[in-house]
Amino acid sequence: MDYILEYADEWLLDGIYTKAGGLIGAEPLGRDSLVRQCLSLYVLVYIAIVSFYFLTAGFIYKFGYDHDLMKHPKFLPNQVSREIKTSFKALPVITLLTVPFFLGEIHGYSQLYENVDEYGWAYLVLSALMFIIFTDFGIYWVHRLEHHPLVYAKCHKLHHKWIVSTPFASHAFHPIDGWAQSLPYHIAVYVFPLHKLLYLGLFSFVNVWSIMIHDGEYVSRNPVVNGSAHHTVHHLYFNYNYGQFTTLFDRMFGSYRLPTAEIYDKSRRQSKKFLMKQAQEVDEMIKSIEKDEQKFKRQ
């Protein structure tokens, strides 16, 4: 993030802060000012994530999403616009809560490094794998804990409004939910060394991945990869497939559910009989979850 802030300061922000200081008759905030750094990071991160979300989700929605899914009985009226509105309500808060992690990186508290030779090329490749496994494990447990009856209704239930999701559902969370599931990405660089440019690339990748697993295109049938089909099972049946990138931890901790053949077969999953059966199963699962919530409230 220091690369981005440095370039932004050089090409844009120095001038803006100088003009702002002149307008109010005060000395412009210098680059070392914590106030300036926090303000700059907030604006830069917010613009970046909103642009990335809208452009990437919009592109996948236009060219990759199976629009026939919108005929599903559990697809909500005006759902796309509702997903977008929910995302735009959440992203300002998520950005605010994320700024301290980026601020720590800028001030050298993380283990981000610049020179590949410091750890070597072999470690560079290994660290990318470490990042995927570390964050997958972390998100698995954050996500699974969010499905506990004491937490679910207050935090994660909003995201499960999108039972049949579109790419725009990828960031349509309660703000605390979205922030909590992003924590492993930010914590990782404080746990083990990661090259700065690699981190930027991986951070972009995870955002694209979050959009792709909501895109309704069930291309991958790899049993290890937690692709769109596996994540569709999570949205339909709630208490399965909590992983982000892989199915490893779902298999390890007993929460894995294999997508049915109908999910991969477009003609079969569009049949009215199958859709009604699936909708009934979803209703039964929702009733079971609500029953568990009431039980915990009485305790």
Describe this structure in words.
The chain is mostly helical and 299 residues long. The chain has one domain. Helix content is 65%, strand content 1%. The chain is built from twelve helices and two strands. It has helices spanning 2-24, 34-63, 79-106, 121-146, 149-152, 175-191, 196-212, 228-237, 248-252, 261-264, 266-269, 272-298, and strands spanning 112-113, 194-195. The protein has a two-stranded parallel sheet with strand order 1-2. The model has no long low-confidence stretch (mean pLDDT 89).
Can you tag this structure with a few keywords?
oxidoreductase, 2 strands, two-stranded parallel ribbon, about 300 residues, 12 helices, mainly alpha, EC 1.14.19.20, C-5 sterol desaturase
